[in-house]
Amino acid sequence: MITVKLYSSIRKYGGKEIMFEYRKGLVVRDIIEELKIPIKEISIIILNHYDNTTDKMIDREVKESSLIHLFPPMAGG
Amino acid sequence: MFGYMGKLLRINLTDSTVKVEDLDFELAKKYVGGRGLGTKILFDEIDPKIDALSPENKIIFINGPLSGTPTPTGGRYMVVTKSPLSGTIASSNSGGTWGARLKYAGYDGVIVEGKAVSPVYIDINEDLVEIKDASHLWGKMVSETTDILVENKKKTNVLAIGPGGERLSKMAAIMNDKDRAAGRSGVGAVMGSKNLKAIVVSGNLKVSLFDDKQLKVTVKESNLKIKENPVTGEGLPTYGTAVLVNAINANGIFPTNNFQEGVFKDAEDISGETLAEKYLVRKDPCHRCLIGCGRYTKTDKVEGGGPEYETVWAFGADCGVKELDKIIEANYWCNQLGIDTISVGATIAAAMELNQVGALNDVDFEGVDLTFGNAEAIVYWTKKIGLREGFGDKMADGSYRLCEMYGRPELSMTVKKLELPAYDPRGVQGHGLNYATSNRGGCHVRGYMIAPEIVGLPEKLDRLSLENKPLWTKIFQDLTAFIDSIGLCLFTSFALGADDYAELYNGVVGTNWTGEEILKAGERIYTLEKQFNIAAGILPEEDTLPARLLYEPMPSGPTKGHVHHLDKLLPEYYELRGWDNKGVPTKERLKDLGL
Ligand code: SF4
User: What's the gap in Å between the CA of A17 and the closest CA on chain B?
Assistant: First the structure.
């Protein structure tokens, strides 16, 4: 199973956490599309501890027990 | 003279004199205003080696040319003085309306000198400036003091210290408009040392603008950028700065239990999302701010302004506490007592670790143990710190002095004795470099490298890579010095760039500056602060981080195994700044900057 964690404004598309069934060849984009989250609302993705912008992460392959964090644009300080 | 009111107030509390001085416009242009001009005045007028709590120190409340204008967030001011906590230059920024009101009263700044024989406050009502007795206010909390002084007066704002500043806690803040804080570096203690309880300002004057018509267009464009930007238009207004909690935690750089770990398992409980769901009453914007990151919250015990991300972290993860209502309560007491939430939370965290290693065996905890995770302790000991009672008296001068007193200075997570904020440098290399080189010590808002390294603004950098980090850090520090000097909020920089600031500045002041020139002005200010610190006796080896962050790999989580590589970053950073290998500015660079 893959764990997908959503934050702040993206939570409206599925709450805090979703478990997603693994299949071979799955990339981040497949998961986001199947969860019906508009890609343009996501800004930063962390996949198994590596973080980068959506465009750099979206075609990455996920593993059987991957952990994915999806963040909308945010900042603070 | 546009943007500036052209007048400075000089108030000597020793001989009770009030003078109005003309602002030197050439000097103002060169050092911009706020942080820059304040530093220049202070450096010219005091010996940086003096004791910060002696009457020889001065405290300067100073605006930028954009404060009090229609520019977005144009209401911020700076408190510039020598810091009693770090011994460095202190320039502490605050929002609310007080700064703008000082311009509406006709002044760019107030320079306070000397020491009153008994408690006083300063009452500024445009041309009428008086020093008044404050003995009836001494000992009172910040909100009560403010209510008494505002009475029913219109167009009046109050800045005040609480018992923390009166009792000279080196973590004391200056509060304005009740819950906006010039929080860091112990500036509140400098007011306390002068027996100055408050400054009341009333006024209704206008700031003159160079090109009213063009400025309207520029302001409209900037406002649109702020509104349409998802960070300033949605994220910050909806969730406040604590929206960062989950992101920082998911990267394993959310300092937990006094920086012993980088992941807090209960982060969700103290996140901006939870805050919005459970305790948020409304957003609470500063003067002329469209963003409104400020929170107004309510629990069954207290209600008021805050908490911010940094506060939620300091009393939360750093103390191992997951009870958000208790964090809000600790925040409330910090605002009332006038003490800095970051430094106080971090000092309690340091005490918890001292206790964990057995260094506090003889301390009377009055039944409220300083152990990680004890939510009662953060509220109880915050009050004791602000009132300097019991063991709170020992904690009231900050984590460095506390840890040194108990023989374990290495447990103090500070740079130049200022408590580090809410990001573990082991997993954000540029941000760590910023901490080490920040002229006021451990501070995140001198060069907020979290923007590029974590949230990808203006572009995403690999947080663990060292490449180009010295250059990015320098640019962020220089741009921030400029923003702090014109009187706008740093958070506008999530939506605006150097060229936008140049346009706003030009529209108000009537200059023709480019983005490049404002960065140069920022660099001049940054270098001047460094010169102040050198003259104050701050040693080259103080441009460093706590040993834990340099030598102990992060034990677990997404940043596991990493340390901060300051030794690899610092030489390149100094070179870019035109400083020698000890961090001393070279003659050539000083000349180039007109210093
Ligand atoms: S963004 Fe926040 S801190 Fe900045 S001016 Fe607006 S409310 Fe104040």
Answer: 12
ipTM higher than 0.90? yes
- Quick check: CB of B491 below 6 Å from ligand 1? yes
Task: Give the DSSP per-residue string, B47-113.
Answer: -TTS-TTSTT--EEEEE-TTTTSSSTTTT-EEEEEE-TTTSSEEEEEE-SSHHHHHHHTT-SEEEEE
Q: Is B483 in the pocket of ligand 1 (CB under 6 A)?
A: no
- Domains in chain A, start-ordered, CATH in brackets? 2-71 (3.10.20.30)
Collapsing DSSP states into helix, strand and coil, what is residue B164?
Answer: helix
CATH of residue B437? 1.10.599.10
Give me the domain span that covers residue B184.
7-202
CATH of the domain at B116: 3.60.9.10
Within-domain flag for B229: no
The per-residue pLDDT for B480 is 96
**CB-based contact A73 B246, cutoff 8 Å:** no
Tens-digit pLDDT profile for residues B36-88: 999 999 999 999 999 999 999 999 999 999 999 999 999 899 999 999 999 99
The predicted structure's pLDDT at residue B188: 98
Residue B223 located in a structural domain: no
User: B50: distance to nearest CA of chain A, Å?
Assistant: 32
Residue A12's pLDDT band (boundaries 50, 70, 90)? very high
B72 alpha carbon to ligand 1 midpoint, in Å? 10
Nearby residues of B302 by Cβ (< 8 Å), 6 or more positions away: B328, B329, B332
Q: How many domains does chain B have?
A: 3
